[in-house]
Design a protein that fits this description.
This protein has 101 residues and is α+β, with helices and mostly antiparallel strands. The chain has a single domain, classed as Alpha-Beta Plaits, CATH 3.30.70. Helices cover 40% and strands 35% of the residues. The chain is globular, with a radius of gyration of 14 Å.
């Protein structure tokens, strides 16, 4: 199993509306691609001095081939949707992991 983790720091001013959009639009769009079998949303619990809230979005893929196909065929367009809707309101970084157990 492959875990694709997207950590996002979002501006508090838009955080509530953004999270609702992520849950109702973006994540369903990611899952509709068919390359992930499960997802989780986590709020990272720590104080952020410059006014952001941090989240981890975890998407689970059966294998590396599925993840690579998602990256090649879907990731850029879906990332662009977020960037267009929330310009200069977030920072994101992505981590790819292999689940051992």
């Amino acid at each position: 199993m492959i875990l694709y983790n997207v950590t996002i720091k979002i501006d508090k001013v838009v955080a509530e509306e953004w999270l609702e959009w992520m849950k109702t639009v973006h994540i369903p769009d990611v899952m509709k691609t068919g390359y992930f079998v499960e997802y989780k949303i986590c709020e990272i619990l720590h104080d952020d001095e410059d006014g952001g809230i941090n989240y981890s979005f975890q998407y689970f893929s059966k294998n590396m081939e599925d993840f690579q196909t998602y990256q090649r065929d879907h990731a850029k367009a879906l990332q662009k949707d977020v960037a267009t809707r929330y310009p200069n309101k977030y920072i994101a970084f992505r981590t790819l992991m292999k689940v051992l157990d």
